[in-house]
Amino acid sequence: MAVGGKFGVGFGESVFKQSYLPENHTDFVFSMICEELGFVTAISCIFLFAAFMWCGLLIAINAPSTFTRLLAFGMTMHIGLSAGVNLGVVTGIFPTKGLALPFLSYGGSSLVSSLIAVGFLLATGWRCPSRARRQRLDHQADNERKVWVS
User: Fold this and answer.
1) What's the start-to-end Cα distance of the chain, in Å?
2) Distance (Å, rounded) from C-alpha 36 to C-alpha 64?
3) Among the four residues 28, 56, 125, 149, which has the most C-beta atoms within 10 Å?
């Protein structure tokens, strides 16, 4: 909160990108977010990654088979650990690794692999047994409603 404050110095008004950060658009994009958009946006970003991890783990738990369970868990960990390591590097907890922040860093290969992981998660979540059970119950309720209406 030293430079960015609660709401940041303004989009594009960063001072650190001039000479202090080595790769401000790829590896250290989170520090740019913190400075330009502030503490509130940084906490929101961390919260969204945590929510993504929570939803991905719920999808993995409800997956219909062992293969899809492991696939969903692996894809969730791929994005979650990449985000965690990048946030650790930016905050100075870990040494520089060169991992991009998923969905936010500049570059095509990181974005493509993150979007493929989200596609696998969505496909697995769509086929969860709880969804099929819910659809059957809704269908039965519709049939009961038709009987009562007619």
Assistant:
1) 65
2) 43
3) 56
- Write down the pTM of the prediction: 0.74
Q: In this predicted model, which residue has the larger pLDDT, 120 or 18?
A: 120
Per the structure block, which two tokens stand in for 11?
């989009």
Q: Which of 12, 87, 14 is nearest to 4 (CA)?
A: 14
Tokens of 122: 């969505």
Contact indicator for 79, 52 with CB cutoff of 8 Å: yes
The span from the CA of 44 to the CA of 41, in Å, is 5
Please enumerate in sequence order all residues whose Cβ is within 8 A of that of 14, keeping only pairs 6 or more positions apart, or say none: 24, 32, 35, 36
pLDDT digits (tens, 9 = 90+) for 77-120: 999 999 999 888 888 888 887 788 888 887 778 889 899 999 99
Tokens of 46: 């961390």
Task: State how far the alpha carbon of 135 is from the alpha carbons of 67, 90, 129, 142, in Å.
Answer: 24, 45, 10, 10
